Amino acid sequence: MNMTLRALLGATALLALTGVAMAETEITVATVNNGDMVRMQGLMDDFYAKHPDIKVNWVTLEENVLRQNVTTDIATGGGQYDVLTIGTYEVPIWGKQGWLASLDDLPADYDVNDLLPAIRGGLTVDGKLMASPFYGESSMVMYRKDLMEAAGLTMPDAPTWADIEKAAAAMTNRDAEINGICLRGKAGWGENMAFLTAMSNSFGARWFDETWKPQFDQPEWKATLDFYLNLMTQYGPAGASNNGFNENLTLFQQGKCGMWIDATVAASFVTGKDSTVADKVGFALAPDNGLGKRGNWLWAWSLAIPASSTKQDAAKTFINWATNKDYLALVASKEGWANVPPGTRTSLYSNEEYAKVPFAKMTIDSINAADPNAPTVKPVPYVGVQFVAIPEFQGLGTSVGEIFSAALAGQQTSDEALAAAQTVVTDEMTAAGYIK
C-alpha cells in the first residue's frame, strides 16, 4: 500500500461497500448538503429535458461525512459514485494517484478558458483539468450594518483583528440573544481548521517550518488560539464547539450574529429570502494583523469523476450541464443573479447584471487576495491556504480540529491544546517520514 493510500485511509473509517447494479444511463452523484448543491437538485427538470437518457441518483451528505465516504470509496476503488463533489485539497493529490478521470474532453461550449485562473490552477494536474468547479470561494466578514451603526462604529473594508474584537464587544447583547460574532467551532479539517488555519496565517503562524517540523509550540499559534478562544468565549454563541458552516448560517439568518467570518458563498444566503436580516448585511475582507497576510482562504467545491466509474460519458454530460455558463444563466432566470454559484468564471464578473449584486466585488477581491503558493508570513514547504496539500493533512487537520474544538468547549486550556496538537502532529509526521 503506498504512502498516499495509507495516509488517506488512516484519516477515515473504512466503510462496508456494496455493489449496486444500475441501469446503463443511471449515475450516482455524491454531494455536500450546502445550499447551492441543494438548489441544483431543484433544477434537474432542465437537465432531464436536455438529457432524458440519463437518470441521476443523489447522495447528499454533511461535509465531514461526504469527505469520509468519497475518500474511502476512491482510495479502495469501490465504485459507488460516478460524480464526486470534492475540494481543492483532494484534486491534486487524487489526480496524481490516477484516481480521477481527466475532463479535458468536455465540449467546446464548456469554455475552459473562462474559468478564473486561480481556481482552474488548483484543479489542474500535469496540465490536465481533473475537476470542474461548481463554485469557488474565499472567506470574508459578513456583518450587521444596523448593529454597527447603533454601536457608533464603521466597519473598514479591510479590517484588522482588533477592529473585529472591538465590533464584537459592541454588538453583543445577551438579553436580545445577539452574539457579537459567530465562527466555526465544529471539529474537522474542513470545518474549524479551515477557519483557524487561515486565521493563523494572518497571525504569522504556520503548520510546519521548512524542515516539516510542526509549529504549534511557537508563539504565533498561541496568539492565534488565545485570541480565537477569548473572542468566542466573550462574544460567541453557546455551544459554539458544535457549530460549522450550516449552523452559523442559520444563526446569522435568524439575526443572532453581529458578525460571521466564513465562506464568501454564504453571501447569497444571508441576503436571501430565508434571512431575517437580508437588508442589513455588509461585507468586508477577512481581517489581518498588519503582517501582510489576511485570514482568508481559497477553495472550490468541484465535480470530478472517479477513474473507477463505468459511466464516464454520462458523468461528463452531467458535469458540463452543472458547471457550464448556461447553468449560471438558468439559476439567474429562476432565482436572480445574487443566487448564481459564484467564484468560478471570469465572464460572471464582467456581467453588468451580476456587478449590481452587493457582494460580487468583495467576493472576487477576496479570492484574488489569497495566495496558496505563499500562504504564510514565514516560508513553508507546502502549498494551500487553509490546508496543507499533503495526503496526511486530512487526518492531521481533523485530529487537531478535535483538540481545538475541545478547548473551545472548555475541556482543556489553550496551552494544553497546543501541546497536544504539537505531539499528535509530530508523531504522525515522524511516522510518515517527513521528520528524520
Task: Offer a quick outline of the entry.
This protein is an alpha+beta fold. It has 19 helices and 10 strands. It has 2 domains: 3-137 and 299-357, D-Maltodextrin-Binding Protein, domain 2 (3-Layer(aba) Sandwich), CATH 3.40.190; 139-297 and 372-431, 3-Layer(aba) Sandwich (D-Maltodextrin-Binding Protein, domain 2), CATH 3.40.190.
Task: Kindly describe this structure.
It is built from 19 helices and 10 strands. It is α+β, with helices and mostly antiparallel strands and 436 residues long. The chain folds into 2 domains: 194 residues, Periplasmic binding protein-like II (D-Maltodextrin-Binding Protein, domain 2, 3-Layer(aba) Sandwich); 219 residues, D-Maltodextrin-Binding Protein, domain 2. The chain has a 5-stranded mixed sheet. It has a 3-stranded antiparallel sheet with strand order 8-7-9, sandwiched between helices. A hairpin with a 2-residue loop joins strand 4 and strand 5. About 3% of the residues have low confidence.
Key features?
3-stranded antiparallel sheet; 436 residues; globular; alpha+beta; single chain; 2 domains; D-Maltodextrin-Binding Protein, domain 2
N- to C-terminal distance: 21 Å
The fraction of residues assigned to DSSP E strands is 5-15%
Looking at the structure, the CATH topology of the largest domain is: D-Maltodextrin-Binding Protein, domain 2
**Computed structural class:** alpha+beta
What is the mean pLDDT? Answer: 93
- The CATH architecture of the largest domain would be 3-Layer(aba) Sandwich
- Number of helical regions: 19
